[in-house]
Every structure is written in C-alpha cells, then in structure tokens.
Specification:
Elements: E1 2-6, H1 10-19, E2 24-29, H2 32-41, E3 57-61, E4 72-75, H3 82-93, E5 98-100, E6 105-106, E7 111-112, H4 113-120, E8 126-130, H5 135-139, E9 144-149, H6 153-162, E10 168-173, H7 176-198, H8 203-223, H9 228-231, H10 234-245, H11 250-259, H12 264-271, H13 276-286, H14 295-305, H15 311-321
Parallel strand pairs: 1-2, 1-4, 2-3, 4-5, 5-8, 9-10
Antiparallel strand pairs: 6-7, 8-9
Helix pairs in contact: 3-4, 7-8, 7-10, 7-11, 7-13, 7-14, 11-12, 13-14, 14-15
C-alpha cells in the first residue's frame, strides 16, 4: 500500500514526512520542477526549509502519479484549490479511501471541504483529519494529536492503521461535520488575537478576546448542531487554543499585520500562505441573516474586508464596554 499526499505545501509535506515512518509515501506536486527539486535536495525548500525528508518519501508530479485500489489518498491543498483538484483527479481516485486534511468552508454554499469532496467523489470513503497541529512543530518531531473522523468505520480503522506514526497520534470520531466546522471556525478568532497583538493591547485583551471568541464559537457550533464533545475536544477547543497562541499560526500572523495597519491584500502576501480564517470570515458575513449573536466574529470580518475602520476603538467597544 502506498500513501499519496496531494499538496506539497508545508502542511502536505509535513504529513508526508510523518506517514513515511511506516509506509511508502508519494508527495504529489503541481509541477515536474518542484518534484525534481524535492527529490534532489531531499527537502522542500520552498515550503518547509531545513527539514530533511526520508528515503521512503518520493515527490511526483500529480499527473504522473499512479493510484491503486489498496492505497490511501490524503488531500492537503488549500481550500480554494480543493474543488478544482477533486474535479481533476476524481476519475483516477474514485473508490480509494480519501483523507481530507484541508480545513475550510465554502462560503457560497455553507459546505465544508469534506462535504464538497463527498459530493464530487461519492464512490470513495471519506475521512477528515483535524486537530491542534502546527506543521513546522510536527515536522521537527514534536509530538501532537489529531482527530480522524468518518461515517465509514471500516475505512476509518483501515486508514488509522495506515497513517500510524511516531509523532502524530489519532483519536477516532464519527462526528465528521462537527470536526470540520470547528476547524473552520477557530481561524477567525486567531485573526482577532493577532489584531490585539498588532495593536499592542496586551495580554488582558487577548484573554478577553479568546473568552468572547469561545462563547461565540459555541453559539455558532450549537446552531450548527455540533456535539459538545467535539466542541470541547482537541478538534474544537484544542485547535482553537493552538491557532491563537502559536507564533507560527498563519491566522495570528495575518491578524497582527492588520493590527499594525497593513492592508488585507498586503498582509496576505506577507504571510505567503493561505489564511483559512479569511475564508471563514467571508462565511460569517453570509451568516448575518441567521439571527446568531456573534458581534466579535462580525467585527473581525469587518476588520478584514472593510477599509477605514478604527480597529482599536472597535475591539475595545466590543470586548470591554459591551454586555
């Protein structure tokens, strides 16, 4: 059995490295040149510089990848690229267990990435992977934990065995939608923490923002009928805490730049990788008619998409003076 990881960014490369502890892994790239550079240097210098890659991991151009029925395919591309990718490879991977490691939400349809994949490739058992996982820490060998969730217990246990490794330990769950929705929601709060950091408002305000953010996180999660066990588990609260406090969090780095007065467009370019909290913030705007009380989430969305607002005044009013 071969594990194919589609997506050679820092997240996909990290997962490929971990899974190569016990299996042959193919890291599928978007170009022949990128695959050749990874194989030659034994390192993904573009996205995960300084982390050596083992001999059991081989980079291949996606078009040249060969899939077999007993393999496992891990989807680890940015959320905006996932629908097109699924459409492109569906005929080649239909029937093979799919692990969706892409976090995010399609705001136009209110669908998670796993739901989109399940609709586009219904022949394949779907497993979602999520948790408090900062890629570079895991690539460096620091221990972590994640959730694998699926409605198909046979596929879930097969994939859990196939992906077993020494660094990332898995919990198993049946709450597929809950795990994915929690993963999408937490990025918005982490952007807010970054804004507080960029404004130099201090740890007290950071604590207030995380507390208010968690309250609204639960409000949305309960509206979406996510189980409390998932909300307060590692895929919910665990992922939220990690994304908020880690200096390696893309969402927090993006928010810090906003707090320092950098525009959204420039901040995204400076982060240099996809910031999933921005995608979820677009969904928050769309949720404005659902009669859910989420003033902090709404304020963070305005900070991202509206020009000329006073971030300091808006945050203080939202967190300190509101009831």
């Amino acid at each position: 059995m071969t594990i194919h990881v589609i997506g050679a960014g820092n997240w996909g490369t990290t997962l490929a490295k971990l899974f190569s502890d016990t299996s042959e892994v193919r890291l599928c790239t978007h170009s022949v040149e990128h695959a050749a550079k990874i194989n030659e240097s034994r390192e993904n210098r573009r996205y995960l510089a300084g982390i050596p890659l083992p001999a059991s991991l081989t980079a291949v151009f996606l078009t040249d990848a060969m899939f077999a029925p007993d393999d496992v395919v891990v989807l680890a591309v940015p959320s905006r690229a996932l629908p097109e990718l699924a459409q492109t490879v569906r005929s080649r991977i239909a029937g093979i267990p799919l692990v969706c490691a892409t976090k995010g939400f399609q705001h136009a349809t209110f669908k998670t990435m796993g739901q989109l994949v399940r609709e586009m490739i219904p022949e394949s058992p779907l497993i979602v992977l999520s948790g408090p996982n900062i890629a570079r820490e895991m690539a460096a060998g620091l221990p972590s934990k994640a959730v694998l969730a699926s409605h198909d217990l046979t596929a879930l246990t097969k994939v859990a065995r196939a992906l077993r490794n020494q660094t990332l330990i898995f919990e198993l769950s049946r709450d597929v939608d809950g795990v994915e929705l929690c993963a999408a929601l937490k990025g918005v709060i982490a952007v807010g923490v970054g804004i507080v950091d960029g404004l130099a408002l201090g740890d007290n305000m950071t604590a207030l923002l995380m507390t208010s953010g968690l309250r609204e996180f639960v409000e949305i999660a309960e509206f979406l009928e996510i189980r409390h066990k998932t909300i307060y588990g590692i895929a919910g609260l665990g992922d939220l805490i990690t994304t908020c406090i880690s200096p390696n969090s893309r969402n927090r780095r993006f928010g810090r730049l906003l707090g320092q007065g950098v525009s959204t467009e420039v901040a995204l370019k400076q982060v240099g990788m996809v910031v999933e909290g921005v995608q979820m913030a677009r969904t928050i705007v769309e949720m404005g008619d659902l009669n859910i009380s989420i003033p902090l989430f709404s304020m963070i969305a305005r900070a991202i998409f509206e020009d000329g607002i006073s971030l300091r005044e808006e945050l203080v009013n939202c967190l300190v003076y509101s009831r």
